[in-house]
C-alpha cells in the first residue's frame, strides 16, 4: 500500500471514529433521565428534584490549623500516610520532606539526586516514599534506612523505563511492592518495586492509549485493579491492570489538559480537573458524565484546576486552582460553598496539590508559596 | 553511494590542480522510488490504532443501550453520601461522637491568635460562661499535650478539660496545674 493510500485510509478512519463517537454521545444523552436533561447537571438536577439543601459553612467552620513551613521552593505534590498523620511533600527545592502533621515537625528532609521532582507518594505501610520528575525515573526511599556519610537518605530503588518525565505516582493500596506511575511519554506503568521491572505498560506508541502526556493517576480504593488517568489529550481513561493493551473506557468532555483525576470514595465514579477550568464527575460503569463543576467569573481569565480531592463521604469536592483559589464544592448541588483561598491564613499563591487525611478529618493543601496548610472543620451544622 | 564515492574520488584526484573548482559536497542519495519507509511504517501504525478504536467504539455502541440511566447513578451517589459519616459535614452530631476531627482543633489552640479568641462553634475548650462541656475529645492523647503548654497570657481560653480517672470530678482543669493530674477541677 502506498503512503498516499495510507493517508487516505487514515482520513477515512478518523471520520469513522468521529462519527461513532457522535452516535455514542447521542445514545448517552437518551439515558439522561434526570429533570435537567443536560449532561452537565445530571446530579444537581436529581438533588434539587429530591429537595436537597446545600451544605453551608460559617465563617469559622473550616479553619487553617497548621502551616507547615520548611520548603524553600514551590510545593508540587503531597501525600498522606494511609495510617497515622504524616505527610510527604515534594518541592522545587529538590527535597522531599516528611512531616508529622499533628505537631508540624519534620521527621525527614530528603535531598534528591535529581532536583526536578514533580510527584511523591507514601507507601501503604508508611515505611517508603516514592518520587519522580524530569529525570524520568521513579525513586524509592526507605525511611528507616540510615543516612549515608553525607547525611542523605540513599535511594533504595530506582524504577527506570519511562521515556518521559514522571508526572504522578501512587502505590497500589495495601501493597508496598507495587505502584503506578504516569508519564510525559503518554503511558502509565505498573511497577514491581522488588525487581524494579515494569509489570505492565498502559498505552504507548503501538497500543491504544493516551495520545499526549499523562499527568495524573488515581487507583480505585475499592478495587485496586482499576485506575484512571488524566492527560493532555483532554481525556481521562479507565484501565484494568490485567489488560494493558487498551483502556476499558475513554471519557471525553474536557476541552483542555486533564491535570488531575481522583476516584470518588465509592469506587464507582471519579472526578477530574482540567485546564478548561471545570471539574467533572464520571461514572466508570456507564461512562456517563454526571456533573460539571464550573464557576463563571466576570473576567475572562480561565482558572486552571490543578488538583482535586473528595471528602470521605464524597459530599464535598475540594478543588485547587491556578489563581490561588481553593473551592469547596457541594458535590450534589454543584455549588461552591466555600473558598479556602479567601479565608484568613490562606495561601498566597497557586494551590498545586491537595489531599485528604486517611480518616477524612483534615485537608492538606500545598502551594507555590512554599507552604503546606492543614484545614479542619471546627463547627456544627445541620444538613437537611 | 558508490556513485557519490566515485564522484568524490574522481574529484579529489583532480583537487591537486589549483585551476579546477572544488567538487560539490558529497551527500547520500535517496533510496530508489522516493519512498520514506520509516514514515510509511508510522502511518500504518496510526491507521491500525484508529481501526482498533473503531472496533472498540462499535462494541461500546452495542452495550450502551443496556446501561442504567443517569438517574440511577445519581441515586447511588446520593445514597452513598447520605450513609457515610463525614468529619467535614456535621449532621447534628455531638462533639464527643466525632473525636477524630477534634484532634486538629484542640492542638490548634496553642497556636491560636494572640487574642486567644475561640470560635464560638468549637466546643473543645470551655467558654468563660459555662462549665458544662463535654470535652471527651481530649481523651485523645494528642490533645492532652495542648494543656501542658498553654500560654499564661490566655488563661480564660487556654484550658483544656477532659475526663480523668484520677480526678473525682467530671471536669479536670489540667491547664491550671503545674504538674499533671494535680489539677484543680472545675
From TrEMBL, chain B:
<dbReference type="InterPro" id="IPR055305">
    <property type="entry name" value="GG3-like"/>
</dbReference>
<dbReference type="InterPro" id="IPR015898">
    <property type="entry name" value="G-protein_gamma-like_dom"/>
</dbReference>
<feature type="domain" description="G protein gamma">
    <location>
        <begin position="43"/>
        <end position="104"/>
    </location>
</feature>
<feature type="region of interest" description="Disordered">
    <location>
        <begin position="1"/>
        <end position="23"/>
    </location>
</feature>
<feature type="compositionally biased region" description="Low complexity">
    <location>
        <begin position="1"/>
        <end position="19"/>
    </location>
</feature>
<protein>
    <recommendedName>
        <fullName>G protein gamma domain-containing protein</fullName>
    </recommendedName>
</protein>
Amino acid at each position: 500500500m502506498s503512503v498516499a493510500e495510507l493517508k487516505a485510509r487514515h482520513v477515512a478512519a478518523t471520520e469513522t471514529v468521529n462519527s461513532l463517537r457522535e452516535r455514542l454521545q447521542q445514545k448517552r444523552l437518551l439515558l439522561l433521565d434526570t429533570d435537567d436533561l443536560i449532561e452537565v447537571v445530571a446530579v444537581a438536577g436529581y438533588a434539587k428534584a429530591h429537595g436537597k439543601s446545600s451544605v453551608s459553612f460559617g465563617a469559622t467552620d473550616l479553619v487553617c490549623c497548621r502551616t507547615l513551613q520548611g520548603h524553600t521552593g514551590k510545593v508540587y505534590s503531597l501525600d498522606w500516610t494511609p495510617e497515622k498523620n504524616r505527610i510527604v511533600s515534594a518541592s522545587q527545592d529538590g527535597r522531599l520532606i516528611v512531616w508529622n502533621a499533628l505537631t508540624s515537625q519534620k521527621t525527614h528532609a530528603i535531598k534528591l539526586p535529581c532536583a526536578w521532582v514533580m510527584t511523591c507518594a507514601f507507601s501503604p505501610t508508611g515505611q517508603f516514599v516514592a518520587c519522580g520528575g524530569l529525570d524520568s525515573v521513579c525513586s524509592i526511599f526507605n525511611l528507616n534506612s540510615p543516612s549515608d556519610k553525607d547525611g542523605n537518605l540513599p535511594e533504595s530503588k530506582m524504577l527506570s523505563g519511562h521515556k518521559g518525565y514522571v508526572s504522578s505516582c501512587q502505590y497500589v493500596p495495601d501493597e508496598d511492592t507495587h505502584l503506578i506511575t504516569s508519564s510525559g511519554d503518554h503511558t502509565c506503568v505498573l511497577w514491581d518495586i522488588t525487581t524494579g521491572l515494569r509489570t505492565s505498560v498502559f498505552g504507548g506508541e503501538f497500543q491504544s492509549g493516551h495520545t499526549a502526556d499523562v499527568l495524573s493517576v488515581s487507583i480505585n480504593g475499592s478495587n485496586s485493579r482499576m485506575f484512571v488517568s488524566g492527560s493532555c489529550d483532554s481525556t481521562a481513561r479507565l484501565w484494568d491492570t490485567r489488560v494493558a493493551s487498551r483502556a476499558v473506557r475513554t471519557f471525553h468532555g474536557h476541552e483542555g489538559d486533564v491535570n488531575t483525576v481522583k476516584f470518588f470514595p465509592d469506587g464507582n465514579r471519579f472526578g477530574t480537573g482540567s485546564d478548561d477550568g471545570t471539574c467533572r464527575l464520571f461514572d466508570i460503569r456507564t461512562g456517563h458524565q454526571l456533573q460539571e463543576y464550573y464557576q463563571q467569573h466576570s473576567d475572562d481569565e480561565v482558572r486552571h484546576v490543578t488538583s482535586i480531592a473528595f471528602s470521605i463521604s464524597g459530599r464535598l469536592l475540594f478543588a485547587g486552582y491556578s489563581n490561588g483559589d481553593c473551592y469547596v464544592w457541594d458535590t450534589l448541588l454543584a455549588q461552591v460553598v466555600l473558598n479556602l483561598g479567601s479565608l484568613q491564613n490562606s495561601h498566597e499563591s497557586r494551590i498545586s496539590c491537595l489531599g485528604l487525611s486517611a480518616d477524612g478529618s483534615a485537608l492538606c493543601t500545598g502551594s507555590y508559596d512554599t507552604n503546606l496548610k492543614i484545614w479542619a472543620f471546627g463547627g456544627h451544622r445541620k444538613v437537611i | 553511494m558508490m556513485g557519490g564515492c566515485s564522484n568524490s574520488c574522481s574529484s579529489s584526484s583532480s583537487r591537486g590542480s589549483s585551476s579546477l573548482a572544488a567538487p560539490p559536497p558529497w551527500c547520500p542519495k535517496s533510496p530508489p522510488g522516493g519512498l520514506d519507509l520509516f514514515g510509511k511504517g508510522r502511518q500504518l501504525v496510526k491507521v491500525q490504532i484508529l481501526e482498533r478504536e473503531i472496533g472498540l467504539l462499535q462494541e461500546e455502541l452495542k452495550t450502551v443501550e443496556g446501561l442504567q440511566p443517569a438517574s440511577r447513578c445519581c441515586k447511588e451517589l446520593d445514597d452513598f453520601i447520605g450513609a457515610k459519616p463525614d468529619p467535614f459535614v456535621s449532621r447534628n452530631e455531638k462533639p464527643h461522637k466525632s473525636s477524630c476531627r477534634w484532634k486538629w482543633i484542640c492542638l490548634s489552640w496553642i497556636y491560636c491568635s494572640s487574642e486567644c479568641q475561640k470560635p464560638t462553634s468549637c466546643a473543645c475548650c470551655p467558654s468563660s460562661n459555662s462549665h458544662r462541656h463535654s470535652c471527651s475529645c481530649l481523651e485523645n492523647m494528642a490533645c492532652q499535650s495542648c494543656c501542658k503548654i498553654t500560654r499564661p497570657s490566655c488563661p480564660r481560653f487556654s484550658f483544656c478539660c477532659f475526663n480523668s480517672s484520677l480526678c473525682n470530678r467530671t471536669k479536670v482543669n489540667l491547664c491550671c496545674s503545674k504538674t499533671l493530674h494535680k489539677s484543680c477541677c472545675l
